Amino acid sequence: MKAVILVGGFGTRLRPLTVNTPKPMLPLVGTPFIEWMLTNLRDQGIDEAILCVQYLADRFRTALGDGSRLGMKVHIIEEPEPRGTAGAVKHVAHLLDDTTFVFNGDVMTDLDLQAMLAFHRAKQSQLTIALTPVEDPTAFGLVETTAEGRITRFLEKPKPEEVTTNMINAGTYIIEPHLFDDIPANQHYMFERGLFPSTLQKNHPMYGFASDAYWTDIGTPQTYLEVHQDIINGKVRFALPGSQIKHNLWVGSNVSIAADVAFHGTVVVCDGAQIAAGCVITGPTIIGAHTRIGAGSAITASVIWQENHLGPDMVVSHSVIGHRNHIAAGVKIHNSTIISDDTVIAGDNAFDRGVRIWPGTQVAAQSISFS
Fold it and tell me: Which of 218, 301, 191, 286 is CA-nearest to residue 13?
């Protein structure tokens, strides 16, 4: 079975992490998100995926190739210009000749796809949308259905007094191929404002598949950190890498950890990482591959990517550090700070309140920064 994955966005809300890395390639516990997504699809019976790409397309080609490493077939199709969610699928419609799954490429979910497909077929639906409940529906597009699940209305970002349901579009669709003919070619066209209301107006059988499966959008720094917390806390099905060497500590290969390092909560230390004496690591925290952490440092509830060199006596709390950074002794990094790639930060700096450091930045000593 085939799936289309929409991965054409620029990841603006996640910058500067997405300057060099497309949003679907951001690492989750050391593994690119799109790779986790593809293996999840493979394990649920999808053997061929078409990625609709625009931004940094070569990164996908380098990482995924033809998909054979993952045990499936992967096509990476580059859009000539942004064409919207439905327009992107129209661009690859020549590859789609049967019932097709479509996924938003920034949604983390462990939805049961076979159950959704069985529902789609049992209802003889032409278009089925996965639905998920949320606490505050006013920030989303609501989907109203009958008791049997047939969709009756879409309501985009309603006012509180307009809310009639807490079920929203969860970004996973099953579409019968004849509906692709209803998408105009070579145009910007959206599912949410184009194909979905058009299909409803034509009275085609269209259903919502309600589920309490894990669901979140990884599109902001806060949700990116929260997804890691949820993975580590077991809220979503995800195989942690490495070996579990003690309660809540997972360690990869060729890791060096001083004997007196203290771990609290769940921590993952990826391949080749080094943690010097006197460090305190408090989960949920990810230490990326080949990252070195100097003596006496304290890392709390943070995500640290690959090949960083962090000096002694550092503090990192509730923040994200990208690739290949050199950060000197005594630096303090707090409260949703994001440090991108290839930065050099001198000692005794402090970053707080969501500061964002862009790739290649060099920060001199004691340039204390607050957002």
Answer: 218
What is the distance, to the nearest Å, from the Cα of residue 46 to the centroid of all Cα atoms in its chain?
Answer: 19
Of 235-249, 287-301, 323-337, give the lowest mean pLDDT range.
Answer: 235-249
Selection from 350, 355, 308 nearest residue 332 by Cα: 350
Per-residue model confidence (pLDDT) at position 371: 45
User: Which neighbouring-strand residues pair with 127?
Assistant: 175, 206
Taking alpha carbons only, the member of 318, 238, 171 closest to residue 31 is: 238
Ordered structural domains, the chain, with CATH:
2-223 (3.90.550.10), 243-370 (2.160.10.10)
Could you please report the per-residue DSSP string of 99-133? -EEEEETTEEE---HHHHHHHHHHTT-SEEEEEEE
Rounded Cα gap, residues 218 and 15, in angstroms: 13
Nearest Cα to Cα of residue 158 among 148, 168, 150: 168
Angle at 362 between CA 23 and CA 337, to 5 degrees: 45
DSSP strands (E only) in 110-238:
127-133, 141-145, 151-156, 167-175, 206-210, 215-217
Element (DSSP H or E) covering residue 2: strand 2-7
pTM equals: 0.91
- Residue written as tokens 């992107």? 88
